[in-house]
Model the fold of this input.
Amino acid sequence: MLFSGLCKSNVRRLSKYYLCSMFKNIEKYLSLVKFSHTVFALPFAAIGYTLAVTQTGQTFSWPLALKVVLCMVFARSAAMAFNRWADRAIDMKNPRTIVREIPSGKISEKAAFAFVIINCVAFIVTTYFINQACFYLSFVALAVVLGYSYTKRFTSLCHLVLGLGLSLAPIGAWIAVTGQFAVLPLLFSGAVLCWVSGFDIIYALQDEQFDRSNNLHSIPSLLGTEKALLLSRQLHIATSLFLLSAAFYGHFNNLYFVGWAVFTGLLIYQHRLVKPGDLSRVNVAFFTTNGIASITFAVIVITSLLM
Done:
C-alpha cells in the first residue's frame, strides 16, 4: 500500500511538472509571435468571409471558416517568428527589444526557425484543402509576409510592406469562399494596408534614433517625428476613405456607417494620444486603440451584413 501510494504521488508530481513545462513552452511561443496582436487582421478576415457569403449567396460553412482562421494564425505566426529570427542580432543591440525571446535565450534560434517552417507548411497544407486559388496564392502570401522582415535594411517603405501583408486578410477570406478576386474586398484590403502602415509608423517612433545610428530604414528615421506623424495621419484618412468607398460600392445599410464612424473616431483618438514631444502612450495607441477599433468595427459590420 505504501509503495502504491508513493508511486501515485510521484506520477502526480511528474504529470504536474510536464504540464507546467508544456504550458510554459506554449506561453513562450505565443509571446514570440505576439499572438494577442492577431486582433488586428483577424476581424478583417471575418469581414471578408462574411462579405463573400452574403454578397455571392454562398452557404455559410463552419469547416471553411475554421480553415480561414487557421490560415490566418499559421501565416501570421510564421511571419512574426521569422521577423524575430531575422532581427535577432538587431534586437540584441536595442535596449527596448533585448528582452525578446531569442535575444534573452528563452527560445533558441534553431527552435524559432523550426517554428517558422512548421507554420509555413501548416499554412500551405491548409490552403490546399480550401481551393486551388488559395493554394497557389499561398506562396505569394508567404513571400510578402516573410519578406517584410528584411525590408527595414534597405527601404523606409517597410511599413507599407507590413500593411500589404496584413491587407491580404480580407481578400484572402473572400477568395477562400469564391475562388476569385473582386473589387469590394479589395477596398477593405486597401483600408487595412493604410491602417496598418499608419499605426506601424507610430510604433516605429520609439526606435527613431536607434534606426538612424544602426543604418536601419523607417519613416520616422527618414522624416523625423513630426513629418512621420503627419504621414501616419494621411494614411489613416485614406483608411477611412477606403471604408467609406466600400459602403457606397457595396450599398451597405446605415448600421455600417455607425461602424465606420466608430472606427474613424478611434483613429482620430489614436493620433491625439501621441505627440512629437510625448511618446509615453505609443503602446496604448498601437495595441489598445487599434485592437478595440478592429474588433468593434468587425462586430458592427458583420451584424450589418447579416441583417
